[in-house]
Amino acid sequence: TRLEQIDAHIAELDSGTYTVLALGEIVSRLKSGKRFPAKSVGVTIDDAYLSVYTEAWPRFKKAGIPFTLFVATNTVDQGLKRYMSWDQIREIAADPLVTIGSQTASHLHMIDNSAARNMADIEASNARFQAELGYVPELIAYPYGEFSNDVIETVKRAGFVAGFGQHSGAIGATDNMADDIYRLARFAM
């Protein structure tokens, strides 16, 4: 994503036409059946790229726009220079506008793995989050946006309150919200 695109999206979101909500608020409203303001939007960012820390976060913070950053912990642990460090993630997580979510430990293709393997990867990720941030995220973005009914059952057992794919679409409360909360769509920028 180019900086010009981010700036244009932020300008549009900050135009007064939209209500930008934190992802936790969106999930809470979906689960409770509480109505949304017109044109409600949530912002998510996958992967802990360093550019989120150096470029995106300052822009969203200046505009007062909340967002959720989904992190795969192994990538951060490897100390690659294109990714944020745990110190940077702790700093960004301290911002009340930022929510940290999980993308597992190894960013594995969950649909291609057993429930045991997926759970082990989630548990490894949760242990790293607990050690580094002092808490375990409640939201998960399925790596590569792919999930199945078996993956959803594993994610539920792991304690996540909602799951996000990479398929495009609007979201809203449904008659089957208890299951649909783990099949939430997002539009890619």
Question: Short summary of the structure?
Answer:
Helices cover 42% and strands 12% of the residues. The chain is of the alpha/beta class and 189 residues long. The strands form three sheets. The protein has a three-stranded parallel sheet with strand order 3-4-5.
Task: Record keyword descriptors for this entry.
189 residues; 8 helices; 42% helix; 12% strand; globular
Strand content: 5-15%
Uncertain stretches: none
The count of DSSP E runs of length 2 or more, i.e. the number of strands, is 7
Biggest β-sheet strands, sense, barrel: 3 strands, parallel
Spatial order of strands in the largest sheet: 3-4-5
Q: Roughly what percent helix?
A: 40-55%
N- to C-terminal separation? 7 Å
How do the helices and strands follow one another from N- to C-terminus? HEHEEHEHHEHEHEH
Description:
It is built from 8 helices and 7 strands. It is of the alpha/beta class. The strands form 3 sheets. Strands 3-4-5 form a 3-stranded parallel beta sheet. Helix 6 runs parallel beside helix 7. The model has no long low-confidence stretch (mean pLDDT 93).
